[in-house]
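Researcher: Go.
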Amino acid sequence: MIGRKNMGRPSPVLLVLLVLGFFFATYNLLTIVMHHKASSSENLSADGLKLVEPVRLMPEETKTDEISKSKYHVALTATDAPYSQWQCRIMYYWYKVMKDKPGSDMGKFTRVLHSGTPDNLMEEIPSFVVDPLPQGLDRGYIVLNRPWAFVQWLEKATIEEEYILMAEPDHIFANPLPNLAKGNHPAAYPFFYIKPAENEKIIRKFYPEENGPVNNVDPIGNSPVIIKKSILEEIAPTWVNVSLRMKDDPETDKAFGWVLEMYAYAVASALHGVRHILRKDFMLQPPWDLEVGKRFIIHYTYGCDYNLKGELTYGKIGEWLVLYRKNLSLPPPGVPESVVRLVTMVNEATANIPGWET
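Model: Structure:
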């Protein structure tokens, strides 16, 4: 992050990364802004303060269960694209920082690389290479490779832990993360824009009425989720099939867009009768979540653009903005603590990862 007037001449590689980053950040930002306005009105108290329910237990019987103390394996799917590699290196750095701290139940770590061939990070990050979907099957939606990657990894790899955390490269561990699952009930983060009930007509194409009420489909994606390995082994093939069927259906593809694979995981879980414990403290998403507090993962998928007064500029390139590179400048006064924390954590990682410049 840096003020534009302080920018030097960027390299061609950086320009490519920035173009891609701005494209996805802007696309995501415009989507979340529309949903955020609607959801905010549903979560305000009388004095205008947003009410945050940190833990939502579902189903009811989990209230008497204890959180599992078993270790979980951290698994993230990734490509060999430069920006994905950049994110994975930072994510792995913070995994190593948090792994053995009090409160952490982290076990081993695997980057499930679905590019089909090894890349230059194999020695730096524990990695397992799997094949992408056959050419053209993802129709340009590269995220469809995620469920297929998990199917292959679960079948071929030796995984010692009983549980798995499905994570993504744009996650940073902000606090030591315990195993939030309870027995056979996985733990997941509830996304306010995943709304099965409001999309019942489409959901019923893949989750027929005879399977139960539509609210059996949890408002989640596959990540972050902590889940028993044995349960994920059952869900993953269904997740692949539902994802491909959704992508092949024009109405569903248009309605779900960039979150299609998230809906597919939610539906696949429901088809197997799996309900998730919804934990709002599992993750935060700057710039909308203003403080880190005791939440566990920072998800930096959305654009953080501000003017020099510290005011968020929705969908517009700000005078101060996110440029993911080394030695990010601190934001101007008024920018939320969550964004400041993100900058300082990126800076710490890039300053301490050996060979970062190369």
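Model: The domain at 72-278 is CATH 3.90.550.10 (Spore Coat Polysaccharide Biosynthesis Protein SpsA; Chain A).
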